[in-house]
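can u pls check wat happens w/ zinc ion
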Amino acid sequence: MDLSALLFILLLLVVGVFLFLQFSQRYFKKKTLHKDYLAGLNFLLNEEPDKAVDIFTDILEVNKDTVETYLALGNFFRKRGEINKATRIHQNLVTHTKLPKKIRIEALSALGEDYLKAGVLDRAERIFQEVLSLDSEAQSALICLLEIYQQEKSWHEAIVIAEKLSSISRDKDYKKIIAHYNCEVAEAYFASGDIENGELFLKRALKSNPQCARALKTEQKSVSSYRCDHCGYTSKRFSWLCPSCKNWEEIHPYGG
Ligand SMILES: [Zn+2]
């Protein structure tokens, strides 16, 4: 057995004993001990964490004494790459409506990170937006959302989140990143022939970071492009016949 497996079994044992004590205290008072918890603990002792997790999540009772332990256990599973188990534990936590706001935010964030790690971006996005509805300055949720929008190439959404981060955090130079997002949008507009919007977002990129080399280069390129005077079609290559409106001799150097 390697060291991490040994540590894992130890952690599960500690959690199991902790939960056992929590519940036995309560149930001894009623003179009945919950047999499911004994079964769960038994699985832990027999090194069958899967079955123990089944039991603890299926009949899990969440209260202020146990919630931190479950959070720790769920996060531990995620770090081990056992996303399904982590997700089950965190899902179970967030279904409890009476959690204090701070704990609710913690549990939702943990669930969002499970989904993010599993690559289920739409669910992760929904969860982190829910976190923001509870705390609009939840920095870790903002950082995760930024990662999601970047992966999805949702640049407009990414700009909104990065602006927010830039106003509350000095950890990173978000202005530089925002300039890149604006460049992405600008380049897409230029590629589709929408010069006006392309230039608008290029301006925004340079406003965010006046030294943005990418924006400066794109600006240079847009100067040397060609445009159809008739329909507004643009291209980096000259042609006599406009491929868009099919008119002859309407394409001229643009932006000079
Ligand atoms: Zn044309």
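DSSP finds twelve helices and three strands in the chain.
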